[in-house]
Write a structure and sequence with these properties.
Blueprint (H helix, E strand, L loop, with lengths): L2 E5 L6 H9 L16 E10 L14 E2 L2 E10 L14 H8 L4 E7 L20 H28 L7 H10 L5 H10 L11 H15 L2 E6 L8 H8 L4 E3 L2 H12 L3 E2 L8 E2 L5 H17 L4 H12 L2 E7 L17 E4 L4 H8 L1 H5 L1 E6 L4 E3 L9 E7 L3
Parallel strand pairs: 1-4, 1-5, 5-6, 6-7, 10-14
Antiparallel strand pairs: 2-4, 3-4, 8-9, 10-11, 12-13, 12-14
Helix pairs in contact: 1-8, 3-4, 3-6, 4-5, 5-6
């Protein structure tokens, strides 16, 4: 399952975002290091379900009248403070937990109501743009430190006639959450000496930064945008290299709680909601404030942040394996029971391996269920493809 990690300094709203996105029972508090042990839960990326092209909607729990929610892992870890790569705060615990994440949501307090350590201050008195580069720098220095700690071993290995610097770097960096293919792409983009003895701290830091950008792309979540001073969200957009999503995690959590109470109809990522139950005056007033924020930003931003990370930054597509290409069902007659997030450019055989390694090993051919025709092994899948995989494996 694809893994999305929540990063950020303490008290920026990571745990509120996590609870709103997963509805898991976690502690939320207005003080630093509310989260100590990492929380792992299931959230979802939102897309259109292929059942919209049929007469009937599928009955899958993750399909809401044609809106499909594809499971992803969401990881909420301890807050990051300056010097985290040196072990300050709960830095080592945070950074180690982050190593297997595919993408990072940097949750920033856009209101400027918390300082660099995550301590509450007067709203607007702190510059939130400082929290954009700080997260990247701490991650880069953490990776550079991993390289530094392994450098003596790499230098010893270089005495062997069979030594290859690329192989040595691949061995180190794959242990920090990358694949061999990730490392190869990064090494093609950076300049470095062949001899480990000639490397400097600058070489290691440059490689670490390039590796982090390749393996841990970042979406900035401008949380507390509903109470942010005018111009703060735009400042964050100007400061960030990648996408910035305005967000009110508290607003999303209020909506999700209202859904559970039967008070409103709302699906995560919707731009609005409908009141269907009884509300007190205070509850109605609170929800109307959330509605005003949604009107300004097109939603609460929680679902949008996840979707931006998955579909835009990681460039994933959603593919649906089926056993019956006519009915779009599995062996038990369930319509479109499974959905997989795959890198763009994936083939039917890649989908087969995503389903199960045995299915991939026994792959024979595939059928495009929409067109009802066989497709080649090198056929490039598109968003929403429904594919029957024919394999020797059962």
């Amino acid at each position: 399952m694809l893994s999305v990690a929540l990063a950020g300094k303490p008290n920026a709203g990571k745990s509120t975002f996590y609870k709103a996105a997963t509805m898991a029972d976690v502690e939320v508090g207005n003080y630093p290091f509310t989260t100590i042990d990492a929380n792992r839960g299931v959230s979802h990326a939102r897309t259109e379900c292929p059942c919209l092209d049929r007469d009937e909607r599928c009955a899958d729990d993750n399909c809401h009248d044609g809106t499909r929610y594809v499971p992803t892992e969401l990881l909420d870890v301890a807050g990051l403070v300056p010097g985290a790569h040196e072990g300050k705060g709960l830095g080592n615990q945070f950074l180690d937990a982050l190593s297997n994440a595919d993408v990072v949501l940097n949750v920033v307090d856009a209101s400027g109501g918390t300082n660099a350590e995550g301590e509450p201050v007067e709203t607007g008195s702190y510059d939130p743009t400082q929290d954009v580069a700080f997260i990247e720098q701490e991650m880069d220095l953490w990776l550079a430190d991993i390289l530094d700690r392994n450098w003596e071993t790499v230098t010893r290995q270089s005495r062997s006639p069979e030594f290859d610097i690329d192989d040595a770097l691949t061995e180190v960096l794959t242990g920090a959450g990358g694949t061999a293919a990730d490392v190869a792409r990064v090494l093609r983009r950076v300049d470095y000496p062949d001899a480990p003895q000639a490397w400097t701290d600058d070489h290691r830091e440059a490689l670490a930064a390039a590796f982090r950008a390749e393996t841990k792309p970042i979406v900035v979540v401008a949380n507390k945008a509903d109470i942010a001073p005018d111009g703060n969200v735009e400042m964050l957009r100007e400061a960030a290299d990648g996408p910035v999503v305005p967000c009110t995690a508290e607003g999303e959590l209020a909506l999700r709680n209202a859904v559970e109470a039967g008070a409103i109809e709302y699906s995560p990522g919707d731009p609005d909601f409908e009141i269907v139950g009884d509300l007190s005056d205070a509850q109605a007033e609170g929800l109307e404030r959330v509605r005003d924020v949604m009107a300004e930003f097109g939603g609460t931003g929680v679902q949008s942040a996840i979707d931006t990370a998955v579909y835009d930054l990681l460039d994933r597509i959603t593919a649906y394996p089926v056993q019956n290409e006519t009915r779009w069902t599995d062996g038990q007659g369930n319509v479109l029971p499974d959905a997989f997030l795959l890198p763009r450019g994936s083939t039917p055989k890649d989908l087969a391996y995503a389903v199960h390694s045995d299915i991939g090993d026994g792959y024979l051919h595939a059928v495009d269920a929409r067109a009802n025709r066989r497709v080649g092994e090198d056929h490039e899948l598109s968003e929403g493809d429904v594919i029957k995989i024919v394999s020797t494996a059962k």
